[in-house]
Design brief:
Keywords: NAD, Oxidoreductase, Porphyrin biosynthesis. GO terms for molecular function: ferrochelatase activity; precorrin-2 dehydrogenase activity. The chain is of the alpha/beta class. Helices cover 46% and strands 15% of the residues. A hairpin with a 2-residue loop joins β6 and β7. The relative contact order is 0.09.
Length: 213
Amino acid sequence: MSGRYLVSLDLENKRCLIVGGGSVAQRKAVTLLECGALVHLVSPEVTPLIEELARQGKISHRRGCYESSDLEGMFLVIGASGREDVNRQVADDCLSRNLIVNIVDDPNKGNFFVPATVRRGALEIAVSTGGKSPLLARKIREELEKTYGEQYGEFLDMLGVFRQETIANISEPEKKKRMLESFVDEKILSLLKEGHLDLVKEMLVSAYRGSGR
């Protein structure tokens, strides 16, 4: 198999279908909602949380068995029915329509894998084994979670502001490059890793103010 082309999809207001109503489908629904997707779910039975999300109008749920017509207007599809025959049909129908589809218990049937992901605000670190060992991907993710704490999300938000200001206000290319590099120098990253966010903020402000704007 050729190497995979990893991408980060923008699912804001995109219609996404989940086939299944168990705990795995529930987890996928919550994740898709966090990404701003318009979540549609089809299953004869669902977990209490899925039922509550549907009652609140956060997702739409059609109670019944999967039909190919459920794919109408969908951008992305996840097969999590727990039934091999149903998931195979979902995969076949999606692939024939060039839809993006993942089958949770057999990723090779679809056309994308869901990587193990560490999220710290806007920072996302994805680990993929190409479907060969989701357990190894999870283990690596757990190690990354220890290394990259919650402080990285706040740091990145602040860094983004300074980056935009620097790009907007400094026209000389070399000076701009030096400024952007100073925001992520070894000392700052070392302090950040140790959890000294207040010191990191002071250093960022100092570096930005020293830009000579």
